[in-house]
Amino acid sequence: MKIATSARKLKVTAVIEATPFARLHIPDTAPARTELVIKIDARLFSVDLATKSVRKAVQDADESGADNVILLVQGVLTAGDRIEEAGLVANVKVAASGAAA
Predict the structure, then answer these.
(1) Is the per-residue pLDDT at 87 higher than 70?
(2) Distance between CA 22 and CA 8 in Å, rounded?
(3) CA–CA separation, 88 vs 21, rounded Å?
(4) Which residue in 29, 53, 54, 88 is deepest, having the highest Cβ count within 10 Å?
(5) How far is it, in rounded angstroms, from Cα 71 to Cα 21?
């Protein structure tokens, strides 16, 4: 079976590497927006992010270690491999507790 339809937007979520964010210094004088480039295979996607969210991701990667943080970029995929209306979220991994012995 095949159904054809249309959509107003295509929402995307990218799980990105936290390592480039660890120990990154963003000065207080940095612009309010930061351009992030995400490489997936041979494609490059550009994302316009609030610098405040990038600072938070850097802080979480520094405090918890890059291996213990999952970074998610969420937004709308548009023409030209751009992700717009985007946000950056840092989730700290939590060790599983209560494992049966």
Answers:
(1) yes
(2) 36
(3) 12
(4) 88
(5) 10
**Residue at 2 is within a domain:** no
The 10 Å Cβ neighbour count of residue 51 is 14
The encoded tokens of residue 8 equal 């107003």
46 located within any domain:
yes
Per-residue pLDDT reduced to its tens digit, 32-78: 999 999 999 999 999 999 999 999 999 999 999 999 999 999 999 99
What's the structural domain count of the chain? 1
Q: Is residue 62 part of a domain?
A: yes
Residue 18 has pLDDT above 70, yes or no: yes
| DSSP states along 20-82 | GGTT----TTS-SEEEEEEEETTEEEEEEEEHHHHHHHHHHHHHH-GGGEEEEEEEEEETTTE
pLDDT of residue 23: 84
Query: Would you tell me how many other CB atoms lie within 10 Å of the CB of residue 79?
Result: 6
Residue 5 inside a domain? The answer is: no
